[in-house]
Each structure stands twice: as structure tokens, then as C-alpha cells.
Structure prediction request, 167 residues.
Amino acid sequence: MSVWAVVLAAGASSRYGTEPPKQVELLPRVLAALRASSVDEIVVVSGAHKLPVDSVPCPDWERGPGASLRCGLAALPPDTEAAVVVLADGPDLDPRAVDRVVEDWRANGGDAVAATYDGTRLHPVLLTRALWDEVPDEGAKSLTARLVPCDDLRPPGDVDVASPAGS
Prediction:
């Protein structure tokens, strides 16, 4: 069962407020976590900014994270059964959370599986091919998913504001 990761890195990063954009700054940590996980391959979706890695450009990125996700999903090979979705601005992504979500899906099936941390649904989110055409512009968060507790792991984070210098 082929499982790829889709990293959403297409946004404008306007709330972050620094150069380079947060995607460029944080992406290496997210990619390292994914490489340490059980996913077969990784695709990165770009949009507003040029990224320092090969990526799938998404011309409709301004429509929302769902548009970027649809671009990434469309780039996956036909034998891909599921995609693990993560954010480029989640620098604390734990590869064990990715593996836990994938293992839960392999054991229990379903079309969508998402990690929770202290009861809050976050990333990673696994989507099977059956849902790929249903991703709305607001993204996968609006899709119903079976929740997998990852309370013992560090949440991936969601960096929207740069840290002040020296902190």
C-alpha cells in the first residue's frame, strides 16, 4: 500500500513577517521528519514563493489550502493509495505521529485519519484516494476523520508569527 506525504508550502506567509518566508526557513525540519517516517515518498506544493527543493507549483494556491492540497494529490502516481498531509510551517512534526496515523489506517481502514494532541485535531492527516476529489478549498480539516491520539508526542506546531530576535 503506497503512502506518500504531501507538504503544503504554497501560502504567502504574510503573517510571519520575515524573509525568507517561513516555508523556506522551516521546510527542512518538516522534510527531515518525513524522511524518518514510514511514508514512501514526499511531494512539496509551492505557490507564492520559490522553494529550495523540487516542488509541484500550484497556480490556484490563493484559493486556500484545499487548492494546494488538490495540486499535490494530482501529482501523486496512480498506485498511491493514501496521502499523509502535513504543513511546511509545522517544524515540530514528529515522525512517530506520521507512523501512528499510517499504522492506524493500515489496521483499521477508513478514508481519513488524523492525529490529535490533547484532544485537538492537527496534522498529520491521512486521506485515501476515495476522498481526494472531495477536498474543499478550506482544506482537509473540514473532512470527517477518525482521530488517533498522539498526546504523548509533541504537536507539529503552526508558525504564523516570527520569533523576536534573540528569543
Summary: The domain at 2-149 is CATH 3.90.550.10 (Spore Coat Polysaccharide Biosynthesis Protein SpsA; Chain A). Residues 22-35 form the longest helix (14 residues).
